[in-house]
Specification:
Blueprint: H1 5-10, E1 13-22, E2 28-36, E3 40-48, H2 53-68, E4 76-79, E5 83-87, H3 94-105, H4 111-136, E6 140-141, E7 150-152, E8 156-158, E9 165-166, H5 169-182, H6 189-203, H7 210-228, H8 236-240
Antiparallel strand pairs: 1-2, 2-3, 3-5, 4-5, 6-9, 7-8
Helix pairs in contact: 4-6, 5-6, 5-7
Length: 247
């Protein structure tokens, strides 16, 4: 792993080392600690793409435009031929926060905590969707919308935009709801209630088609069943999505 010379020269970096490699199925992502002349140490995140130059340019453009519009994303520091360097957000992933909250709550659902997390997710998604419509003039969704792609610092950050595409917001929400309740241990009362709170929170901000959300959630459960061989409860979609809350 190497930082590109142009970035090193631009930031007056006198030395650097890898502190950590993050888990990533698609790319190589590293936490880098650099020594900057006259400014001490600074940490960056280096994302190296696997042979897809278009992905580099596309994600860099999205990050830059979202940051400019005030959406909570890491600041883009550098774009190269096959890599980008972005701000290091020091905080756990949203899946870790949810897992810890469920463990602390035990058998008792922590309504205030879950409602707060759901509200942050809904606010961030609303900001993202509005910004992307301003940028592109189209309805753009994340698609890769799992909780590992959100970091919790002093606010919620979205960090992965490689799979963004044109689509319906109901597609994102359906996939997100299915992901939430299938993290291990799957289908717990806490995760089902939390998924319901996410649906409620986003539904209060966006004009959602409930039937479309149910269809997209079912579609993702079918995909999860095929990918993981997981048994999906027949009534799970109805337990997540309230009846006629947002007609």
């Amino acid at each position: 792993m190497q930082l590109e010379k142009e970035f090193i020269d631009r930031w007056n970096i006198t030395g650097y080392q890898i502190e950590k490699q993050f888990n990533s199925k698609k790319n190589k992502v590293y936490l880098v600690r650099a020594d900057i002349e006259g400014a001490g140490e600074k940490r960056f995140v280096l994302k190296q793409y696997k042979g897809r130059r278009r992905s580099v340019s596309r994600e860099a453009d999205i990050l830059a435009e979202l940051y400019k519009r005030g959406v909570s994303v890491p600041e883009l520091y550098y774009r190269g031929a096959k890599s980008i360097v972005i701000e290091h957000v020091n905080g756990p992933t949203l899946i870790d926060v949810m897992t810890d909250a469920e463990y602390i709550a035990g058998q008792k659902f922590d309504y205030i905590n879950a409602k707060g997390m759901a509200s942050h997710i809904a606010r961030w998604l609303d900001d993202f969707y509005k910004a992307m419509e301003q940028i592109t003039g189209r309805s753009i969704i994340l698609w890769d919308i799992n909780l590992r792609n959100f970091l919790v610092g002093y606010k919620l950050y979205g960090i992965d935009f490689e799979e963004c595409r044109e689509g319906a917001y109901e597609e994102d929400l359906g996939r997100l709801l299915a992901f939430i309740v299938t993290y291990a241990p799957a289908f717990t009362p806490y995760k089902i209630e939390f998924a319901r709170e996410v649906y409620n929170a986003l539904g209060s901000r966006l004009d959602l088609d409930r039937d479309r959300v149910m269809a997209e959630t079912t579609k993702e459960f079918d995909a999860i069943r095929d990918r993981r061989g997981m048994e999906i409860p027949e009534d799970i979609v109805g337990r997540i999505i309230p009846v006629n809350l947002f007609p």
